[in-house]
Amino acid sequence: xxxxxxxxxxxxxxxxxxxxxxxxxxxxxxxxxxxxxxxxxxxxxxxxxxxxxxxxxxxxxxxxxxxxxxxxxxxxxxxxxxxxxxxxxxxxxxxxxxxxxxxxxxxxxxxxxxxxxxxxxxxxxxxxxxxxxxxxxxxxxxxxxxxxxxxxxxxxxxxxxxxxxxxx
Length: 168
What we know:
The chain is mainly beta. Helices cover 11% and strands 34% of the residues.
């Protein structure tokens, strides 16, 4: 979505709200396409003392697979949009995120897409205390313990043999 800022670009204190849906179903993360639902983007661009500040949020429900147990689950993803818009950059290197306007228009798709991608978690867990899968038999440990014997650390194997011997 392109937002024309002509009305507020030279008017300190003015603001322009926006709202749109964005489709990121083509994005692939680790072989999956989690953003199957539309992303709702809303916010406002404010002219604050001559600086154009974009504030808003992007939210959707992601369809994910747990990285520990492999169980599919859904999770709400909310990302805040907070950036500056400028007609030109004084220096090539800038401290914060500054997006250049194309004439008097801002490309909100680019701003929201970049913020949403950078806001994605690198690890997805179905719950904070997910126990994952057994390394030996592959059983889901969230459903209960498996029948595997725990492996003995080879450095402690001598002590384990002492514990297995019957008392005299």
